[in-house]
């Protein structure tokens, strides 16, 4: 047994039963001991927000007339930046929104 615990003992018994059954039935078995299930899948590649898009959002925030719209644009920009995993762009957008609100 690899682990001297009840879980380790259960794993060893299950392993022995599985291999004994495969041997009796003459079945080949490919066992990676659960390693394939534990491998992390790669994160999908997400492009950051383009400089043009960031500039458009900032210009829109600067030119909007009322504070509720500034807050809404900031919230929407935050969601877009989070989805793109672009913290730097959101920092710049947030700074502009804070300047407009104050």
Main sheet characteristics: none
Strand content: under 5%
Tally of individual helices: 5
Proportion of residues in helical segments: 55-70%
Question: Could you tell me the number of beta strands?
Answer: 0
Order of helices and strands: HHHHH
Whole-number tally of structural domains: 2
Q: Give the overall shape, derived from the CA principal axes.
A: rod-shaped
Low-confidence stretches: none
Structural class: mainly alpha
Mean pLDDT: 87
Indicate the radius of gyration in whole angstroms: 28 Å
Determine the N-to-C terminus distance: 66 Å
Description of the molecule:
By secondary structure, the protein is mainly alpha-helical. The chain has two domains: 6-38, no CATH class; 51-101, no CATH class. It has five helices and no strands. Helix 3 runs antiparallel to helix 4 (67-84). The mean pLDDT is 87.
Please specify the SSE layout and strand pairing.
Layout: H1 6-25, H2 35-38, H3 51-63, H4 67-84, H5 87-101
Which descriptors would you attach to this protein?
rod-shaped, single chain, 102 residues
Write a concise synopsis of the structure shown.
The chain has 102 residues and is mainly α. The protein contains 5 helices and no strands. The chain has helices at 6-25, 35-38, 51-63, 67-84, 87-101.
């Amino acid at each position: 047994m690899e682990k001297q615990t009840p879980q380790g003992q259960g794993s060893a018994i299950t392993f022995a039963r599985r291999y004994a059954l495969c041997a009796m039935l003459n079945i080949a078995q490919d066992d990676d001991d659960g390693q394939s299930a534990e491998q992390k899948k790669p994160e999908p590649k997400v492009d950051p927000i383009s400089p043009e898009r960031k500039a458009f959002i900032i210009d829109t925030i600067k030119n909007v007339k009322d504070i509720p719209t500034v807050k809404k644009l900031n919230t929407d920009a935050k969601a877009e930046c989070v989805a793109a995993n672009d913290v730097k762009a959101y920092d710049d957008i947030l700074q502009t929104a804070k300047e407009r609100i104050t």
